[in-house]
Amino acid sequence: MKVCIGGLYCGGYKGVMTLTLLLLFSAALVLFMLFDDEQLRLYQGINAQRQLFVQQSLALQNISRQQKESLCAQLSLDNDLNTQQIVFERGVQADRLSQYMWCGRQRLFKQAPKKGISAGEYAQLIQSESLPHFKTELTLPPAVLPKKLSDTLYWFDATQTEWELKGNVRGIVVAEGDLRISGKGKISGALITGGKLTLAESVTVSYRKSTVTKLVRRYSRWRLEEKSWYDFKPL
Predict the structure, then answer these.
(1) Of 105, 63, 93, the residue nearest 217 (C-alpha)
(2) Rounded to an integer, what distance in angstroms lies between the CA atom of residue 190 and that of residue 113?
(3) How far from each other are the two terminal CA atoms of the chain, in whole angstroms?
(4) How many CB atoms neighbour CB 117 within 10 A?
(5) Cα angle vertex 40, ends 36, 45, to 5°?
(6) In this structure, what is the dihedral angle of CA atoms 161, 167, 173, 175, given to the nearest 10 degrees?
(7) What is the dihedral of CA 20, 21, 27, 29, to 10 degrees?
(8) What is the 3-state secondary structure (H, E, C) of 102-143?
(9) What predicted TM-score, i.e. pTM, was given to this entire model?
(10) Residue 116 φ/ψ, nearest 5 degrees
(11) Which residues contact 13 (CB under 8 A, 6 or more apart)?
(12) Cα distance between residue 210 and residue 72, in whole Å
């Protein structure tokens, strides 16, 4: 059994214990502060990345919103595609953000005619629901045909059933109803009617694939597909 003399021994022991506890507490506090600082920096880094993501995402949305219609309209018609994807990207490779949208092709022709004369096949070859979008581009042949041939679409509505041909035509001739062609000349391309076709003996029709292909493509347009925008890459 140890005895305190004048309280010196016990006081010294207690002082050492207190100092030891203070040192341990200080060390623990330092470790905690270091750990907390690391956590703080990690949180700040994550928050900064999140803010950057939001900023870039909003910037992409603004770009896509402003350009989506015009970008679809600018796509080439010189192909037979029905859909095309447009990608908006922002940022460097490692942190690149991408957003996507689809453009769909609106066509006047359901399919290209495969022969010179397609009498009574109007409904099989023409998209009637697309007519309003192309109405301003559908015209009758002029009274005097141009001497220089070019690929042209000529259109007769249901009330226009007579045509006197005076020369040669290179293109597609479409009649919504019956059509009687008199006169003299040649149609190189294709002839489509919704009703009865009557041709004079001096009128000939021959199929021209290159003309048909060019006009079928020309009379179409690219439009943004509804609800086609998304910001994830499909698997």
Answers:
(1) 105
(2) 7
(3) 79
(4) 18
(5) 150
(6) 0
(7) -160
(8) EEEEEECECCCCCCCEECCCHHHHECHHHHHHHHHHCECCCC
(9) 0.70
(10) -65, -50
(11) none
(12) 25
Ordered per-residue pLDDT tens for the chain, 235 residues: 443 434 444 444 555 566 666 667 666 666 666 565 566 566 556 665 566 556 655 665 665 565 666 888 899 999 999 999 988 776 555 556 777 888 999 999 999 999 999 999 999 999 999 999 999 999 999 999 999 999 999 999 999 999 999 999 999 999 999 999 999 999 999 999 999 999 999 999 999 999 999 999 999 999 988 876 666 555 4
Alpha helices of 1-127 — where are they, by DSSP H? 8-73, 122-125
Backbone angles phi, psi at 19, to 5 degrees: -65, -40
Distances (CA, A) of 137 to 49, 97, 133, 177, 218: 51, 41, 9, 19, 11
**Residue type for 147, please?**
K
Ramachandran angles phi, psi of 62, nearest 5°? -65, -45
